[in-house]
Amino acid sequence: xxxxxxxxxxxxxxxxxxxxxxxxxxxxxxxxxxxxxxxxxxxxxxxxxxxxxxxxxxxxxxxxxxxxxxxxxxxxxxxxxxxxxxxxxxxxxxxxxxxxxxxxxxxxxxxxxxxxxxxxxxxxxxxxxxxxxxxxxxxxxxxxxxxxxxxxxxxxxxxxxxxxxxxxxxxxxxxxxxxxxxxxxxxxxxxxxxxxxxxxxxxxxxxxxxxxxxxx
Length: 216
What we know:
Shape: globular
Number of strands: 9
Largest sheet: 7 strands, mixed
Radius of gyration: 16 Å
Oligomer: single chain
Strand content: 25-35%
Distance between the termini: 55 Å
CATH superfamily: Vaccinia Virus protein VP39
Helix content: 25-40%
Strand order of the largest sheet: 5-4-3-6-7-8-9
Number of helices: 6
CATH architecture: 3-Layer(aba) Sandwich
CATH topology: Rossmann fold
């Protein structure tokens, strides 16, 4: 595999083609070696627009969705960022390159260990990794941006409450096969605005509350 050619094709034919036009986002996705964050058995798929299994029923987002996530957060380099679901660490690395500091939480210790190794290999050090079930509580403090890398069956204001005023949240809400990717902006205490960005499908967060059963 010619990694550099495949990377350019990923950016031009997939990411940019799906309306990811932010120069900073395109640059960071071009510079961070995505293939190093992909499990060895799946490295041939590193630049394909497909979900890549990580174990424990978890997957890397596709490059197109990763690009849309990063663009939606409107990062300028000064932000404290919270990531729910570290996964392989690739999106974490992109967030750390686009913001000032990233706190990333992962429920599976094995995935967190692997992500820590991947991030160290890539020279990313402005991160704080924690093993935590984010459906039960979040790290203390407030953040300028929050990204939830697993879907939720219904919108939970827990993630909005973790934002500073003006902060942005990316979250995917709904049931498969069609889910709503949203950018939520906190506008004040107890207030926020929500914008639907695109339809997608993500595996749900572990321990996410299910949708209420339909009753006649």
